[in-house]
Design a protein that fits this description.
single chain, 1266 residues, alpha+beta, Beta-Lactamase, Rossmann fold, seven-stranded antiparallel sheet, five-stranded mixed sheet, flat, WD40_rpt, guanine-nucleotide releasing factor, guanyl-nucleotide exchange factor activity
Length: 1266
């Protein structure tokens, strides 16, 4: 007998586990013959049990009273006593029914002819003795690569003199009581699911086999039907921290969830390959998979074939195998291994010799003895390249530290006689081990591909594979050479270029070194740091003082860290997040429609009780309960209830929102229910958003280009694109100067040969710099983060003979002789003058470079001969760049100067003409700025300005800074210490947010996006939440621990303009948000529910302020004052302001000892007005701001008001900050810090003020507060 099981396709998107059960054939046999002489028999499928497992009358009555959401076409499989044929399959829609046939739902891609062979992969044999029950696993893949999974249980039943079966009902020809069975026939039950619930379905089938022993053959059908019906009614849990539990006597079955929406379901023992293979062999197998070889696994245990193969698939996550995947082949399918393309297959160890001698170019992996070999038809065994050495070493150390044996875990535990407790102990141990194995293999993937991002150009979607390969260690190049050609790697590149925040990106981000973060900010050419050159590892980072609040650093001199290191990849795995379970109610039989209705009602009530008793701060669990309750409502036909539950996911966990399902519900809503939905604002908005998303769906650009040298002449625009694709430089202005340099004295176009010469010289110089190996005696004089960017030829100097070396900080002489030594020439900040002159030598005049420094009387002279002119340009540019960096407190200037001098060097090397030096001088940007427009920084500005940072680093253009937010560091038990640093949040255009670590001013998270519209406000509502308002009318809620947006508030219908938080006793109690249409909403911070809402009598509401339980709302023409408790209008400030100006631009409330002052600015005005709020009838104080066109923003800091503005200087827009004394009402400081309008201000602990500029500059200045 063969019993098969599959899913009901038409509602598979619901996430339920529907099943299709098929009874098999009792085979007639001759018991007089010896079983050994029997030939293998062919199993056949005779009958199918399909959901909904209730009578036709019940189905009819249910459908007439319900809705048409679950209606759909079924594929039909007609069963006959003969072998079933697929061509007999017909649909239920209008096709004739042949007599004696029955309609059966068949999954799309399940071959019912081939499936029996997989259920008996070794063949079906009648035996003289019963054998032990056996379970194995199947994987099916359709032509689109979608997989379904099967679990097969084999068991044996006795037969007597022989029998004939009709639809599985045995009709015994002779049954004699007490007669010993003549032989035993195997039967199989196969359960097929959309999800790989291997352990759960194995437990279910194990329980079923135990139960079947007590049934007579005539009762087996009914019991199997009940089993299938029960599984069909069990939903699949949504991704997240909730597993489902149900009772399948004698076991409790757990249906595990995915960790997150992008993670796979893991319901098997991930350590199995580590028990079968040594770590070195595991790495070899992973190499074969990553290089997409043809692989065949062998084992004498059918179950191990699929489980081990699946483990290796999970080891690759988030990379995905995209070729044929058939981990179990029956003995009739061995010719599959002759396939010409890449594949991963598995077959019984008995076929090892046959496969190895008849197929070519196979990797043969024997699970039983842990061997890896090649098929014998290969004349020369292809070598399996080694995994990159450093990544492999880390993996092996981690693998050796794992505790793989459960018995060792039990040694210290008391014995238990409770089966449930034993089961839970084992599961807890396995879950912990699975987490460790996942982290270990993910770390391997990250270590292998971490530096791919350094060779990507996101704007033009280009990967420079050639340069990436050149930068790999010699021993690692064979591995990367093969991997880079695979489909798997190509898909990986698409995900990186799309900036997908998957498991790889999250781990790569969390394990970045400080050097990696600085490289994000300063895109300098790659060179070896002194630390790397010395191959020294920094043992431990500076230990952070673990206070509950971690403060900002003293910004005396921000510099690169002395010891950038990557976080240890051997660190202990953090404890896995706690997972809850939900007990599914019992299902009662017989399964009539009223029983199903009762089950769904009870399920709904249990979920409602869980929702009502769960604290609101546990939003992750609430989201899962809402999701499940929505599914149950859907199955009950209560579509509006389902939509309401799914709508709650916006405020609990947006990631699991079932967009496609909700869209299908909306499309099938009857007119009466659609009318009811439109009367409910929250459902109307949900429907609108979902349907708009469908209309706005655009195809994601996922092409990947490999960099190629140009073959035609290039105009400026094409040249800009090519240079950006090459990764040499991204800044448009710099590329324009490079274009001018390469086209000196010719038409304004660049031929392919010039571009090739320039590109090759740049790359050769980069490669040569990687080979520089300074002796330890020299390295000890340099900072660990310094790099040697250029070396001169050997020259004669007044300090001795040697090579002049240039780093980002200094010049030094690498002396020659017996032992190379270090002689300091000058730090760039200490240079006083640089001259290019000549000295007489016999009858010759030798070009000489002279460098004068502040602290040395002796002038450095070097006879640089032909290199003198170039070094003169280089030193002057670095000197000017360093001066600019020091004056403006902006370290990016020195990095830009460094890029300029390296471009000069490449231009001279590529052109090799008399005009080369003149061409290179076109790139002397900072030296020309210093000579043409001397930039004198006022003393007040220089003393107050501490540092500048650039959130647009790496972008093609600078971007305007729309909003700034500083959040203090807090050390939470659940957080890593490095995640507890203070942060600076910066909102750029089109919804982009960049987050800086405010303790080092390095980029912590480069760019994540909140919609596509301009962001208008940001506020830290509580320690774990940052709310961000957008012009798309949505408030995005960022989890500061995971740095992701899982929730959003959609109750506003216009641009969000401001958000403020009310605190009581220092604890946030309510949040207030405003929108441009005049709506103000008070939010419960814990539940995210609307407490109160108010509509102002006018629109254009631009900002709100909170003071003493009063909400001050600023519109263009007036200010409204309301009580926060009842939103009752208390005051309208309008008549006293009519004579001042047209409309408000911004305002602040400034509490003083005896009264509250209102500070306000107006459009187009350079005056600041101050009112005493107790006496608006009096004339306001007016403060005129010199050289100001318009006031753009203001904040209160201590007893000062800091005001940002826009002005003009020499015809250009400039940003200026005024610091005004609140007591004296006078301007204390005028700060010249930006080359564009000051768009945003924020305070950091009242110690620093941070200002952000418009798109012409796009930088953030950090000012010290007196």
């Amino acid at each position: 007998m063969l019993i098969l099981n599959a899913w009901k396709e038409k509602i598979s998107y619901l996430g339920f586990l529907p099943f299709l059960i098929q009874r098999g054939l009792l085979v007639r046999c001759d018991t007089q013959r010896k079983p050994r002489s029997l030939l293998p028999l062919d199993p056949e499928v005779l009958s199918v049990f399909v959901p909904p497992f209730i009578s036709r009358d019940d189905i009819h009555s249910t459908n007439t009273s319900g809705n048409n959401f679950n209606r759909g076409k079924r594929r039909s499989f007609r069963k006959k006593k003969e072998r079933p044929k697929l061509e007999n399959a017909k649909t239920l829609n209008g096709d004739q029914k042949a007599p004696g046939t029955e309609d059966i739902t068949v999954p799309k891609d399940i071959d019912l002819i081939g499936l029996p062979q997989l259920c008996f992969p070794g063949g079906l044999f009648i035996t003289a003795e019963p054998r032990e029950d056996h379970i194995h696993f199947l994987v099916f893949t359709d032509v689109c690569g979608n997989r379904t999974y099967g679990v097969v249980a084999q068991y044996y039943q006795p037969i007597q003199d022989g029998c004939i079966a009709s639809n599985g009902q045995a009709q015994w020809e002779s049954v004699r009581a007490g007669k010993k069975p003549g032989c035993f026939v195997p039967l199989a039950i196969c359960v097929i699911s959309r999800y790989p619930y291997f352990n759960a379905l194995k437990d279910c089938l194990s329980c079923l086999l135990v139960q079947l022993r007590s049934f007579k053959d005539l009762d087996v059908d009914d019991h199997i039907k009940e089993f299938a019906a029960k599984l069909f009614l069990i939903p699949s849990p949504p991704p997240g921290p909730l597993h489902l539990v149900f009772n399948m006597k004698p076991l409790q079955i757990i249906i595990p969830s995915q960790e997150d929406p992008d993670s796979p379901v893991i319901d098997l023992d991930l350590h199995l390959p580590l028990l079968c293979f040594k770590p070195e062999q595991v790495l070899q197998i992973m190499t074969c998979i990553l290089t997409e070889r043809k692989m065949v696994f062998f084992s004498s245990d059918w179950a191990l074939l699929t489980l081990v193969a699946e483990c290796f698939m999970l080891y690759l996550h988030p990379l995905q195998w995209q070729h044929t995947f058939v981990p179990l082949l029956s003995r009739h399918m061995l010719d599959f291994v002759m396939a010409p393309t890449s594949f991963l297959m598995g077959c019984h160890a008995d076929h090892f010799e046959e496969v190895s001698t008849e197929a070519e170019d196979l990797i043969l992996i024997n699970i039983d003895d842990g061997n890896i070999s090649h098929s014998r038809m290969v004349e020369e065994e292809p070598e399996i390249p080694d995994v990159p050495a450093q990544a492999a070493e880390t993996f092996k150390k981690r693998a050796e530290s794992l505790q793989l044996h459960y018995d060792l875990e039990l040694c210290h535990l008391r014995a238990t006689t409770d089966l449930g407790e034993l089961q839970m102990r084992r599961r807890a141990w396995q879950q912990k081990l699975n987490t460790e194995v996942q982290q270990m293999t993910l770390q391997l993937i990250v270590n292998i591909f971490r530096e791919v991002k350094d060779h990507l150009n996101y704007e033009h979607r280009v990967f420079n594979s050639e340069e990436f390969l050149k930068t790999r260690a010699i021993g690692d190049q064979p591995f990367y050479g093969k991997v880079l050609e695979t489909y798997m790697f190509h898909s990986f590149l698409k995900a990186r270029l799309n900036r997908k925040m998957d498991a790889f990106a999250r781990l790569e981000l969390s394990t970045q070194s400080e050097e990696d973060r600085f490289n994000l900010m300063f895109r300098t050419p790659r060179r070896l740091t002194m630390e790397k050159m010395a191959s020294k590892r920094f043992n431990s980072q500076n230990i952070i003082n673990r206070r509950m609040v971690i403060s900002m650093p003293n910004l005396q001199d921000i510099k690169l860290p002395e010891s950038p290191t990557r976080r240890s990849s051997l660190r202990r795995i953090e404890p896995s997040k706690s997972v809850s379970t939900f007990k599914i109610p019992e299902i009662h039989f017989p399964l009539m429609s009223h029983c199903v209705h009762s089950y769904y009602t009870e399920f709904f009530n249990h979920l409602s009780k869980a929702i009502n008793t769960l604290p609101p701060d546990n939003s992750a669990l609430l989201a899962r309960y809402f999701y499940l309750r929505g599914l149950i409502s859907l199955m009950q036909g209560k579509l509006l209830n389902a939509l309401s539950d799914f709508q709650n996911l916006d405020k609990t966990d947006l990631r699991i929102f079932p967009t496609e399902l909700v869209r299908k519900i909306v499309e099938t809503l009857p007119p009466s229910e659609r009318f009811q939905a439109d009367r409910k604002p929250e459902l109307k908005r949900l429907i609108s958003l979902v349907m708009e998303q469908q209309r706005e769906v655009t195809k994601i650009d996922d092409h990947v280009k490999h960099f190629e040298l140009p073959k035609t002449h290039m105009q400026l625009d094409d040249f800009v694109k090519r240079i950006q694709e090459s990764g040499i430089v991204r800044d448009i202005d710099t590329i324009h100067r490079l274009f001018d340099a390469l086209t000196v004295g010719q038409q304004k176009q660049i031929d392919p040969e010039t571009f090739r010469d320039f590109y090759n010289y740049w790359k050769e110089t980069e490669a040569e710099a990687q080979e520089v190996n300074l002796p330890p005696a020299v390295i000890e004089h340099l900072d660990k983060n310094e790099c040697v960017y250029k070396l001169s030829c050997s020259v004669k100097t007044n300090y001795g003979v040697g090579k002049i070396a240039l780093t980002q900080k200094r010049l030094f002489l690498l002396t020659e002789g017996g032992r190379p030594g270090y002689v300091h020439i000058a730090a760039f900040r200490d240079i006083e003058d640089v001259k290019n002159t000549t000295v007489a030598f016999l009858l010759l005049r030798i070009p000489t470079l002279r460098i004068e420094t502040i602290y040395k009387k002796q002038v450095f002279e070097a006879n640089l001969k032909t290199e003198c002119d170039l070094w003169y340009l280089i030193v002057k540019e670095m000197w000017a760049g360093k001066k600019m960096a020091d004056d403006h407190k902006d370290p990016q200037y020195i990095q830009q100067a460094l890029t300029n001098v390296l471009l000069m060097d490449a231009v001279v090397g590529a052109l090799q003409s008399s005009k080369a030096i003149y061409a290179a001088s076109k790139l002397s940007y900072f030296d020309r700025m210093k000579n043409e427009v001397p930039m004198m920084i006022p003393k007040t500005t220089s003393e107050t300005l501490k540092h500048k940072i650039n959130p647009s680093a790496g972008e093609t253009f600078p971007q305007a800074i729309d909003v700034l937010l500083y959040t203090p560091g807090h050390l939470d038990i659940s957080e890593r210490p490095d995640n507890a640093h203070p942060k600076l949040w910066c909102a750029l255009n089109e919804g982009k947010v960049v987050v800086f670590d405010a303790s080092t001013w390095t980029i912590q998270q480069h760019c994540f996006r909140m919609g596509r519209c301009k962001l208008t406000c940001m506020v830290m509502v509580e320690q774990s939440q940052v709310w961000i308002g957008s012009q798309d009318s949505i408030i995005y809620i960022i989890n500061t621990h995971s740095m992701s947006c899982n929730k959003q508030l959609n109750d506003h219908h216009s641009d969000i303009t401001d958000i403020v938080v009310e605190k009581k006793n220092g604890i946030p109690s309510e949040a207030y948000s405003s929108s441009l249409d005049g709506t103000v909403i008070a939010w419960n911070i814990s539940t995210l529910k609307v407490n109160r809402a108010f509509q102002l009598p006018c629109q254009n509401l631009t900002s709100i302020k909170l003071h003493n339980e009063q909400l001050w709302c600023c519109t263009g023409s007036c200010i409204f004052v309301m009580s926060t408790y009842e939103f009752r209008l208390q005051m309208k400030i309008e008549q006293h302001l009519k004579d001042v100006c047209s409309y408000f631009l911004c305002f602040q409330l400034f509490p003083e000892v005896l009264h509250l002052n209102l500070w306000a600015s107006y459009s187009g005005s350079s005056d600041l007005y101050i009112w005493n709020t107790k006496d608006f009838a009096s004339t306001p104080q007016k403060i005129h701001l010199q050289d100001c066109s318009e006031i753009t923003c203001m904040i209160q800091v201590k007893n000062q008001m800091w005001v940002g503005s826009s002005g003009t200087s020499q015809g250009k827009i400039k940003g200026k900050i005024y610091v005004i004394s609140a007591e004296k009402k006078t301007v204390e400081k005028e700060l010249f810090g930006h080359a564009d309008t000051v768009k945003a201000l924020c305070s950091a602990e009242d110690r620093y003020v941070l200002s952000g500029a418009g798109k012409e500059e796009g930088k953030i200045a950090i000012w010290k507060v007196e």
